[in-house]
Amino acid sequence: MNFTTFLQGNIFFGKGYLSKIIEISKHLGKITLIVTGKKSTKESGALSNLIDYLKDVGVNFVVFDKVEPNPDVNIVEEGGKVFLENSCESIIAIGGGSSIDAAKGIGVYASYKEIIPFLLGEKALDKKIPPLIAIPTTSGTGSEVTKYTIITYKERKLAIASPLITPNFAILDPDLTLSMTQNIVRDTGVDALSHALEGLFSLGANPISDLFGYEAIKIIYKYLPRSFAKKDDYEARESMHLASLFAGIQISQSGTGIVHGMGYPLTVKYGFPHGFSNGVLMPYVFKFELPAQYEKMSIITNILGFGTGNLYEDAEKFIEILLDFYKILGFPKNLKELKVKEEDLEIFAEEVSKNERLKRISPRITTYEDILFIYKNAYFGVL
Ligand code: NAP
Ligand code: ZN
Q1: What is the pLDDT of residues 135-166, one digit of tens each?
Q2: Which residues line ligand 1 (CB under 6 A)?
Q3: For residue 26, what are the domain limits?
């Protein structure tokens, strides 16, 4: 067994830990840029609490609150200009994965005065972006610890992957997730599950990333239905925040896979939340990948307590467990039900099949025809 891995970032996890920003305030410089979404952190009070802490320690700030889900490159560039015009020295992202990803992109823009060539893979980062503190308010993306940012450019979700954009500090305070609605809990929770599963099945997986993946699955299986069912189940919300963190640590090493690749066009064209797109596709992708990953699928079945002792039966059972789990969460069964147009599938398959990175880490060789086959199965609900 050979593997090379790189773990980085400082993590604070705990109730009320938003206040940890005080402890690390010396890393913020004289003035920091707060990057957040349009509404939720204001409504929940998270933003004003953060601002109060910054005032306590005498750090000046500028608020950039224009981030929308699936952040577009224009917003990132605008945020980058605000950073430079105000001579900011650090960035605090508070919000969902979109705010954290936008903040990473803003960091890139602040360092290079451009971002598009990095998204297109024409240039590679060679210096660390300004100090970045990430404070997630959803439990799903793990972006607070990942080396990725996903930015929308010309109707495509493109990634920059580099340890140079990994946040220096991640502050995970479960209190900040209590305001999530049922749909946000479900979609972000299923995103964390997709990270854990795809991370395990990816060819980029290693024994350390697998540890985080199996543990995240156990937690999500137990706590996502509870977190979904009740807003004030603190233990469930806290556990889901932990699972999301674990899966984030995992995918920073393993990468994700074609579930994510195939989900992006659905999100861009139909506006489905990121985790929702992944969730609908997962059973169909994993059915396709089963011959290549039946051992790990069987391990999952056993970890969740449904093992029969027969490797192949247990691998098949894994797909059933996933579908039963979806029933609890009221998840749709196929793309047709969601009014996706069948004629779009070829266009999506064409786009996904061009992604070389996905092909490298996909456990089964995946051609255009394979991807179209999976989309069609997901469309008609064929497993
Ligand atoms: P999001 O797009 O950040 O937010 C979705 C919605 O949830 C927004 O309307 C947001 O409102 C609201 N929201 C956030 N926190 C809330 C809270 N505590 N209470 C109530 N509402 C809240 O959702 P996300 O799933 O966390 O992030 C998805 C993005 O992350 C996608 O762009 C995806 O591609 C990316 N992603 C990145 C990575 C990575 O490693 N970098 C991994 C997976 C996914 P406001 O807009 O008003 O704040
Ligand atoms: Zn994701």
Answers
A1: 999 999 999 999 999 999 999 999 999 999 99
A2: 37-41, 44, 69-70, 95-99, 101, 137-138, 140-143, 146, 148-150, 157, 176-177, 179-180, 184, 188, 191, 274-275
A3: 10-177
When the pLDDT of each residue in the chain is averaged and rounded to a whole number, the result is: 96
Looking at ligand 1, which atom is closest to the CA of residue 264? 34
> What pLDDT was estimated at residue 1?
73
**pLDDT digit string (tens) for 108-141?**
999 999 999 999 999 999 999 999 999 999 999 9
| Shortest-distance ligand to the CA of residue 41 | 1
Residue 294 shares a structural domain with residue 259? yes
**Which of 177, 205, 229 lies at the terminal end of a domain, its last residue?**
177
- Residue 154: which residues within 8 A CB-CB, separation 6 or more? none
Look at residue 5 and tell me if it is in a domain. no
* Nearest atom of ligand 1 to the alpha carbon of 96: 3
Please state at what angle helix 207-229 crosses helix 274-303, rounded to 10 degrees.
110
Q: Is the pLDDT of residue 296 over 90?
A: yes
| Smallest-distance ligand from the CA of 140 | 1
CA distance 356 to 362: 10
- How many domains does the structure of the chain reveal? 2
Q: By alpha-carbon position, which residue is closest to atom 25 of ligand 1?
A: 188
At residue 6, the pLDDT reads: 75
Tell me: the pLDDT tens digits for 19-36? 999 999 999 999 999 999
What average pLDDT does this structure show over 189-193?
Answer: 98
261 CA distance to ligand 2 centroid (A)?
Answer: 10
Q: Burial level of 125, CB count in 10 A (0-12/13-18/19+)?
A: middle
Nearest CA to ligand 1 atom 12: 40
How far, in Å, from the CA of 278 to the mean position of ligand 2? Answer: 7
Q: What is the DSSP string of 210-240?
A: HHHHHHHHHHHHHHHHHHHH-TT-HHHHHHH
Residue nearest to atom 46 of ligand 1 (CA): 37
Q: How far apart are CA 308 and CA 252, in angstroms?
A: 33
CB atoms inside a 10 Å sphere around CB 318: 24
pLDDT recorded at residue 264: 95
